[in-house]
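Need a sequence for this fold. Nothing fancy.
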């Protein structure tokens, strides 16, 4: 969806849901929520989010937990963690930072991919869209931040502006117009590296379409692409020079790279050689990291070049932990993610501010020796807040919307980070906090 809208200038909203439509367990929901939440943050060009499409399903629904058949409401700890995550999105900045790793590799995508989604047709199968993932996963799993490039956006100059190597196949989709090949040919001639995968023998090659009707007599749309590149099918080689660029042909359907174990090595080596020939070095690793303002997002993959965990050292608030601890070392195991607030990014040690909370803050008031605000979140959920202050407060006062004192709260000062941890029960009517030092 991002590649579909990026060159158009349209506003994009990302959605992640703490609960899925499928009937699973709370444990499964939480695992997938953290993964998809991390994934959306790794697109630094998007800062608008839909946070929960059906709140009543989250707060009032009952689902099983692992090892039990009894349906239960959301655990207080998961509700708190979810609200910390959701509220952090209010402060999530746009960023020009990019995922760490070798940039400029894209995979061509088209809306027509879904036209071929029928599971079997004339014995040709594409299980689980493997012809698409066959081009993506061999690189993504090795820590290469592969982009998707929408074929329908090739008319926008910025679509291919930063792409150095473009991978494509017609095993899973077909070009809707011949102009697609005009744009691709122009890009290659100016120095682009185009890698084509496919045996061109799926039955959808034979549908009555523009490449085999009228003046066109091509058996497959890739033959039209070859002609547009100024090449001839009969003399086509694996590696072809076209202007300042290259056209590489791999006679395998992409699905063959991922439907059998260890079948992608030759493909990866080809991409490595092509990328290196453009004067760059293809970096391989088992993790991704991205900094956006004070937020540090990380993911470590399984099925990668190794199973070593990623260690991040610094001073962080762990935003996936509902207790919001301050930590100096974060270990991230394969197939897990991390969401951290980097305390070293805070400027102005004397400024009072809420850094993370399971609630939204309103009506902040700051003086030389005090800080107050009202905070709101769904009632009957537990709030946790990590608050930056210039000094350990001498008094901490919590009251409800009617200014009645709330005595059931906990506070704890962390000297090294200069932050106060504050915990109490949320109220949708609002809770007032007054801090004085």
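Here you go.
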């Amino acid at each position: 969806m991002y590649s579909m809208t990026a060159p158009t200038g349209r506003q994009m909203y990302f959605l992640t849901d703490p609960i899925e439509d499928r009937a699973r367990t709370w444990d499964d929901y939480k695992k997938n929520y953290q993964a998809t939440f991390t994934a959306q943050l790794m697109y630094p060009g998007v800062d608008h989010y839909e946070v929960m499409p059906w709140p009543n399903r989250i707060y009032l629904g009952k689902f099983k937990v692992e090892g039990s058949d009894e349906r239960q409401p959301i655990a207080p700890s998961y509700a708190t963690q979810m609200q910390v995550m959701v509220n952090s999105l209010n402060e999530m900045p746009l960023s020009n930072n990019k995922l760490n790793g070798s940039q400029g590799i894209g995979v061509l995508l088209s809306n027509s991919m879904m036209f071929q989604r029928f599971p079997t047709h004339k014995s040709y199968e594409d299980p689980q869209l493997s012809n698409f993932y066959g081009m993506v996963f061999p690189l993504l799993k090795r820590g290469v931040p592969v982009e998707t490039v929408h074929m329908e956006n090739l008319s926008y100059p910025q679509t291919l502006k930063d792409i150095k190597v473009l991978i494509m196949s017609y095993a899973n989709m077909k070009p809707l117009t011949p102009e697609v090949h005009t744009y691709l040919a122009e890009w290659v001639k100016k120095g682009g590296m185009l890698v084509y995968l496919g045996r061109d023998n799926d039955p959808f090659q034979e549908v009555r379409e523009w490449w085999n009707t009228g003046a066109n007599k091509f058996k497959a749309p890739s033959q039209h692409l070859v002609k547009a590149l100024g090449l001839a099918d009969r003399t086509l080689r694996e590696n072809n020079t076209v202007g300042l660029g290259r056209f590489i042909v791999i006679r395998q359907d992409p699905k063959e790279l991922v439907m059998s174990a260890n079948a992608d090595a030759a493909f990866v080596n080809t991409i490595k050689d092509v990328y290196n020939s453009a004067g760059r070095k293809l970096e391989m690793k088992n993790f991704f990291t991205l900094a956006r303002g004070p937020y540090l997002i990380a993911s470590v993959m399984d099925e990668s070049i190794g199973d070593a965990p990623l260690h991040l050292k610094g001073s962080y608030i762990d935003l996936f932990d509902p207790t919001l601890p301050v930590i100096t070392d974060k270990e991230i195991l394969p197939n897990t993610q991390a969401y951290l607030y980097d305390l070293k990014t805070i400027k102005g040690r004397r400024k009072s501010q809420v850094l993370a909370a399971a609630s939204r803050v309103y009506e902040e008031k700051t003086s030389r020796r005090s800080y107050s605000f009202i905070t709101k979140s769904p009632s009957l959920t537990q709030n946790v807040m990590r608050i930056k202050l210039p000094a350990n407060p001498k008094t901490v006062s919590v009251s409800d919307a009617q200014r009645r004192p709330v005595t059931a709260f906990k506070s704890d000062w962390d000297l090294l980070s200069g932050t106060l941890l504050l915990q109490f029960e949320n109220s949708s009517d609002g809770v007032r906090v007054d801090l004085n030092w």
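For context: The longest helix spans residues 26-41.
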